[in-house]
Amino acid sequence: MISHGFKQCASDHSLFLKHGYKTITALLVYVDDIVLSGNDLAEIQSITQLLDNAFKIKDLGDPRYFLGFEAARKSIGINLCQRKYALDILSDVGMLGSKPISTPSNYTTKLHQHSGTLISMEDASFFRRLIGKLIYLTNTRPYITYVVQFLSQFVTTPTSAH
């Protein structure tokens, strides 16, 4: 992509940007998925053809759901949100009807790697999946970042305290 005028973003190495006089094209790569966006349809078609020639890609059209984000096209642009993703997480943990609180964690509690008792393998697997999902949710809800990153330290051996 770099040889075709794209520059790799310094803060996110999976994002490539190409700027023209009045155009911008963004290409985001995640494992084997690519999201291509911009304000020049001819450029997007050109890049799509280039990728198809090199890799035999399948164009899935406009994205509706990608990495926990819902994408809704509107006349003034694209709206990205994680409402469905957040509701799915709450549903998975049986907390869909819960009320929000201003401080979800007691910051005075000192958790350590060996706090509490070890939990079952099934519960540990559930904990790991939940933390992984919550990490994606921090993209639109930065106020949970501290707690999620703190708890992610314990995914190798989660206990009842975690």
In brief:
Helices cover 31% and strands 20% of the residues. It is of the alpha+beta class. It has a domain at 2-61.
Q: Which residues sit in consecutive blocks of at least 5 with pLDDT less than 50?
A: none
**Class from helix and strand fractions:** alpha+beta
Q: Count of helical segments?
A: 4
Radius of gyration: 20 Å
Strand content: 15-25%
Order of helices and strands: EEEEHEEEHHH
Major beta sheet, strand line-up? 1-2-3-4
Work out the number of β strands.
7
Compute the average pLDDT.
84
Query: What does the main sheet amount to?
Result: 4 strands, antiparallel
**Inertia-based shape:** elongated
Gap between N and C termini: 43 Å
Instruction: Tell me roughly what share of residues is in helical segments.
Output: 25-40%
List the helices and strands and how they pair.
Elements: E1 7-8, E2 15-19, E3 24-30, E4 33-38, H1 41-55, E5 65-66, E6 69-74, E7 77-81, H2 83-92, H3 121-137, H4 145-152
What does this structure look like?
The chain is α+β, with helices and mostly antiparallel strands. It has a domain of 60 residues. Helix content is 31%, strand content 20%. The chain has four helices and seven strands, in the order ββββαβββααα. Strands 1-2-3-4 form a four-stranded antiparallel β-sheet, covered by helices on one side. Strands 5-6-7 form a three-stranded antiparallel β-sheet. The chain is elongated, with a radius of gyration of 20 Å. The mean pLDDT is 84.
